Amino acid sequence: MAEADDLVAAIEKVEEKLAAAKASITKRFVGQEQVVDLTLSALLCSGHALLIGLPGLGKTRLVETLSTVMGLDGSRIQFTPDLMPADILGSEVLETAADGSRSFRFLPGPVFCQLLMADEINRASPRTQSALLQAMQEKVVTVAGENRSLGKPFSVLATQNPIEQEGTYPLPEAQLDRFLVKIDVTYPDRDTERAILLSTTGTAEEEAHAVFTAQELIEAQLLLRRMPVGDSVVEMILDLVRACRPEDPSASQRVRDTVSWGPGPRAAQGLMLTVRARAMLQGRLAPSPEDVIACAQPVLSHRMGLNFAARARGDSLDGLIADVATQVSGVEAAA
Prior knowledge:
The chain is α/β, with parallel strands linked by helices. It has a domain at 230-335: Orthogonal Bundle (Helicase, Ruva Protein, domain 3). It has helices at 2-28, 33-44, 59-69, 85-89, 126-138, 173-176, 190-200, 214-226, 231-243, 253-258, 265-281, 289-300, 308-313, 317-329, and strands at residues 49-53, 74-78, 90-96, 102-108, 115-119, 140-143, 146-149, 155-160, 181-185, 259-261, 305-306. A 5-stranded parallel sheet has the order 2-5-8-1-9. A two-stranded antiparallel ribbon has the order 3-4. It has a two-stranded antiparallel ribbon with strand order 6-7. Strand 3 (90-96) and strand 4 (102-108) form a beta hairpin. It starts with a helix and ends in a 6-residue tail after the last helix. 39% of the residues are buried. Belongs to the MoxR family. Keywords: ATP-binding, Nucleotide-binding.
């Protein structure tokens, strides 16, 4: 009983700090509460996020603010077609000492940080994109045959422009699967846009301040994994993921006619973590079926593919996932 009480007290303490962090972030990144929640969820889960949105919607501002508020050492890479893997990972240089001896010295690249912003990640060549795969999955990079650990914690927040497709390279499925969530950053509504105008075009702007330290974030990440998940939520996650696989017996005819490939076990792992993070961000002690529905689209949509016929019909994965989640839960999706 004492251990359970300690867990509850620890979760409540982290929830208070998360509320303060959200308040600080939303002073600079006005509106878009769901985007802020999903990005914070990725950090709490020690995962990576892919932000999809048009230019000028504040994606870069959000990442910079997160770096400050969460007390992380941030770094930014602007991906371009001529970017090379060494520009991300670093390289060895030959140095001559005062006594004439020569030796190699490793110059770390920008990936050696705690929060990496990969701006317009789909503009780099596949060779350069693949340089991030090992870093994102193992949080280690290999340069000149030597494994080098990255910062702790380490997360990648990548941005992608959905409309400028000339000169871009689609991210391969193996790399998309490394992103815990895909976050759609949409246009703000009129009231939110008014608030943005008033808060960002005056003589002074709100400044973000640190709420977490890197060590406190690591402790929150460990605490998140201790949050209990009820059997009904676990079974719902399994039902949802398996129902999205066209070859699974539980899949509906619509899924079989629409989906080319479905989510793997990593998607189920991602859902287990993100539902906990959503509950924690909302001040609750355990996740609910509503959390599974809310997290389904961000976690699953980039881990599934439409077949040719579905793409020709203009079908939407988001709508399909929402319908499947509603069917397996019996709970109506929130508006």
